[in-house]
Amino acid sequence: MEKGLGFSHFLSQVDDIGIGVLVLLLALSMASWYLIFTKTIANFLAARRAETFLKRFWNANSLQEVNATLTVNAIDNAFAQLAQLALDAALESETRGLKHLAITGGGTSEFITRVLRNSIEQEAARVESGLTMLASAGSAAPFIGLFGTVLGIYHALVQIGISGQGTLDKVAGPVGEALIMTALGLAVAIPAVLAYNAFVRRNRLWLARLDAFAHDLFALVTVGVKSNSSADDEHPSHMVELTERRP
Is residue 133 part of a domain? Predict the structure, then answer.
């Protein structure tokens, strides 16, 4: 009897709507776990690469050395990309001056600020990809499971109505179907909600660090531009020395 009322018995008793509910829950679960694994690995690699770059950045003697390092090494993290964009913006501002439309509106400082802000916003959009799916799975899965539960209870009532008596053999299958649907909905929702909260917290801390680094970059690059503009003709490529500050 126990073997006959197992999960295989549940699958044999469930109707087409119940199968649709199961398939939907399975799809949400697979999508959630795929995002959990891929984003966890991506975040781990991004953090390790960022730490390596920041260590090299703050140990450099000048922005010119940083620029040379970025030219040689691949840009594989948001902090390196932000530094590269800031240095490119400073160089473009220095070479073109006010002849470039993007630099004309607000001057060099405003131009560099816009470049840094746009880069941070693009990084924010990138790290938030997939979170909508996790949030949807976490919020919708319990209700999808509840829908399957309602179907199971309905089937139990139909069996009681047909047989005229509520014996265990008549209602065990439909009631088991109802309980399994509830359990599956929770099994899909709980990991998705926990992962969503963890990723949101990580992204908030990541973007806060990136924003702080952008402020440091702005100060260093703008001072470097001013130093270049006031340097002698014999030293046109002079760059400001980096401070001893550490992230």
Answer: yes
The answer to whether the CB of 112 falls within 8 A of the CB of 93 is: yes
The alpha carbon torsion through 146, 151, 152, 154 (nearest 10 deg) reads 130
Closest CA to 190 of 139, 147, 146: 139
Could you tell me the residue range of the domain that residue 32 belongs to? 16-148+189-229
Measured in degrees and rounded to the nearest 5, phi and psi for residue 151 equal: -65, -40
Please indicate, yes or no, if residue 6 is contained in any of the structural domains: no
Burial class (CB in 10 A: 0-12, 13-18, 19+), 60: middle
Higher-confidence residue: 19 or 30? 30
Number of domain units in the chain: 1
**Cα–Cα distance between 234 and 128 in angstroms, integer?**
48
Closest Cα partner for 185 from 41, 22, 60? 22
Residue (of 65, 70, 28, 30) closest to 53 by Cα position:
70
- Position 132 in a domain: yes
**Residue 209 maps to a domain:** yes
pLDDT tens, position by position, 85-121: 988 888 777 666 545 544 455 567 788 888 899 999 9
The first and second tokens of residue 40, run together, are 């966890």
Q: Where are the alpha helices (DSSP H) in the chain?
A: 7-13, 16-59, 63-72, 78-96, 101-104, 107-127, 131-163, 168-230
